[in-house]
Amino acid sequence: MVTLRPFTLDDVPALQRIVSGRTTRFTHGYDMTAEEAAATVRRFIDHDLDDPRTHWNRGIERDGDLIGLVKARLRADRAAALSYLLREDTWGNGYATDAVRQFIPLVFADGVQRMEAKHHPDNAASGRVLVKAGFVPTGVTPAQQVGGRTLPPHPLYELRASVLSPRRAPVHARGTPVARRE
Ligand SMILES: CC(C)(COP(=O)(O)OP(=O)(O)OC[C@H]1O[C@@H](n2cnc3c(N)ncnc32)[C@H](O)[C@@H]1OP(=O)(O)O)[C@@H](O)C(=O)NCCC(=O)NCCS
């Protein structure tokens, strides 16, 4: 069992350790520097002050140890894009699935109607996490050119709030509807 919590400035070294090695293979592609980790933690803390909320960031903690992060970013039409990372030495214990399952209600409670996620086609473990957390496949992204590289089509998934709680009216963070990003 893991717990989710907001980030604090003390988390910089732990975040840098998380975003390193094989964990970056399908994401950043390189180890995070201490400066990048500090800037990321500061950004996460700032996001928590935004009203209405457009980002959700939580540290994943196990026995007092920060082992990963799970986050979502608001997109158009009250949809939020989900992503997650776990420190390499903690993989394969069900922690990512546990964290995503706990995270989903936090995002939907703020009025988001749909969560979406994608993963690299070679990253089958990430697809399993999504399916186990209730996401359903919806297709693939088109191949993309990023920084001179061609990214292959990525499998896409979604989870609708109405599937989890069909009769629930949207609830808004601090009484304010989530911002719309068009
Ligand atoms: C993807 C990631 C978050 C998974 O974390 P985790 O805690 O190991 O995930 P869980 O243990 O909850 O579940 C992993 C599932 O994938 C399966 N799996 C692991 N490696 C696999 C592989 N190579 N092929 C197929 N399935 C695999 C596991 O068996 C498990 O499924 P099961 O419970 O049905 O057996 C972790 O590997 C990670 O941080 N990777 C690097 C960052 C990343 O890729 N993030 C996602 C970006 S989209």
Provide the gyration radius in Å: 16 Å
Question: Order of strands across the widest beta sheet?
Answer: 1-2-3-4-5-9-6
Ligand inventory = coenzyme A
- Main sheet, how many strands, which sense, barrel? 7 strands, mixed
Query: Number of helical segments?
Result: 5
Total domain modules: 1
Shape type = globular
Q: What oligomeric state do the depicted chains represent? A: single chain
Give the second-level CATH assignment, the architecture: 3-Layer(aba) Sandwich
Strand content: 25-35%
Note the run of SSEs as H and E: EHHEEEHEHEEEEH
Count the beta strands: 9
Name of the CATH first level:
Alpha Beta
Q: How would you name the CATH homologous superfamily?
A: Gcn5-related N-acetyltransferase (GNAT)
Helix content: 25-40%
Look at the helices and sheets and give the structural class: alpha+beta
The residue ranges in which pLDDT falls below 50 over 5 or more consecutive positions are 171-177
Task: Provide the CATH topology.
Answer: Aminopeptidase
How far apart, in Å, are the first and last alpha carbons? 37 Å
Q: Averaging pLDDT over every residue, what do you get?
A: 91
